Amino acid sequence: MQNTAPSSRTVELWIRSFAPATTGPTQERALERLERLESATTVDVAEVRIWGPKVEHTDRSKRIPQLARIQDRLEAFESWAARTGRRLEPFFRRSRCESTITGERHDVHRLPTIAIAEFEDGELVHVAPCVDDDRTIDVFDRFDALEGRSDDSVLRFGDDRRSDAVVSDRSDTKLDRSKASIERSTPDPT
Fold first, then answer.
1. With 70 as the cut, is the pLDDT of residue 184 above it?
2. Are strands 45-51 and 9-16 parallel, antiparallel or unpaired?
3. Which secondary structure element, helix H or strand E, spans residue 34, and what is its range?
4. How many other CB atoms sit within 10 Å of the CB of residue 182?
C-alpha cells in the first residue's frame, strides 16, 4: 500500500538582528508574508530565526546552541547548493580570518539581511537568496512560489525583472554604474 499522507512543509525565515533601519521595511514585509503563508495553510510550520551580519566557525561556537544552529543551517545550505547546482554567493560569503596576535585561524560567514529555507518532510528543498544559472532568486520570489503565484518551483525571469527587495547589504548602485559604463563603451555600429 502506497503512503498517501501529505508531505509536511516547514519554512524558516532568517532575519538579521539589529539590522540598519533601511532594511526594516524589507524585514517587516517578509514577516507579513510569512504570517500570510502560515494562515493560508500553505506551510505547516513557519519559524523566524535570528542571526547577525557575520558568524564565525570555531570550536567555541559549537558549544553555544544558537551559533551551532546557524552553523548547522549554513552547512545544510551549502550542501543543498552543491546538490542542486545553485550558488549562494554573493549573498552568503565565507572568508578566512587570522589573528595577528594569537595566530588563530577560523572561517567567518557573512550572512544576508533576510533568507528563507524550505523543508519538505525535514529535507531542505530550497534556500533563497540564491543564484540559479544567471538568475537571482530572492526571498520574495520564493514567497510568491509558496503562495502559488508561480507555477515553477525554480523561478526564472526575463532580463527586465525588477526586484524591490533588499536581500543583502551589497550596493546595487555599483552594479548599475558598471552596466551603464559598459553600455556607453560599446561602439555604435552605424
1. no
2. parallel
3. helix 24-39
4. 9
pLDDT in tens, 118-137: 999 999 999 999 999 989 99
> Nine-digit cell at 81?
547548493
Element (DSSP H or E) covering residue 56: strand 54-57
Amino acid (1-letter code) at residue 15: I
178: which 3 cell numbers?
Answer: 558598471
Q: Say which amino acid occupies 126.
A: H
Cα distance between residue 38 and residue 127, in whole Å: 18
Strand partners for 116? 13, 128
pTM: 0.71
Predicted confidence (pLDDT) per residue in 10-39, tens digit: 999 999 886 666 666 888 899 999 999 888
